[in-house]
Amino acid sequence: MENRIKELRQKNNLTLEKTGEKVGIAKNTLSRYESGKREPKLEVWQKLADFFDVSVPYIQGFDEHRPNRIKKLRQLKKVSQGNLAKVTGLTNQAISQYENGKRNPNEKVWQQLADYFDVSVPYLKGEIDTEYLGKIIKTIYLVACNKRVVIKTKKESIIAENDRLIAITSLLLLMFKELNLDHKSESREAFEKNASLLGLSGDEKVDYIKKASVSATEENYMYDIECAKALIDFYDNL
Where is the HTH cro/C1-type domain (predicted)? Predict the structure, then answer.
């Protein structure tokens, strides 16, 4: 797979010598990077990506059209492109280009946007954060092994006895979120299967699913996500 160093350099009407001067890389070394005869270290990739205002994966030659979650998260937060531009110090044009994949943020901007939306950078990029998923799974295991569950949120502190099912459900909802799955459809499917396991049918099954779905409001969902994150932080800091 070819990298995009030469493509970006030529697009910006820069010579090897001029680019090397600006990023602090010898002309011959930069030439070898472009031809693939030598592989830059990660910090060099980052330096080049920042200089050309693109992401590291993009300059390395990976697919430029990988869908990110900027637009989805902005719409969920009910923020316009203009307001997002104001709070982040970016331009409307940049936000629009980031959302439609015509331009990739550099790592600093990815982190800035991730902090604003309160998500991880891999999640914002449309990737799966395997490290964070590992923390969720480990926390589920710890909760399942303990009768005493401690949940601390920004608003309150809860020490609940035998509330493991609620805690595990919250953690699973967070996992759905990280995997970019629709929690409503996943929850409904779970309610339907549970109704069958309980031997419910007809109107009883419909009523059960309806009552269970009422509790799955967006407000409750956000509270569950907050509790799940609090659980992970609590067990992670033990």
Answer: 5-59, 70-124
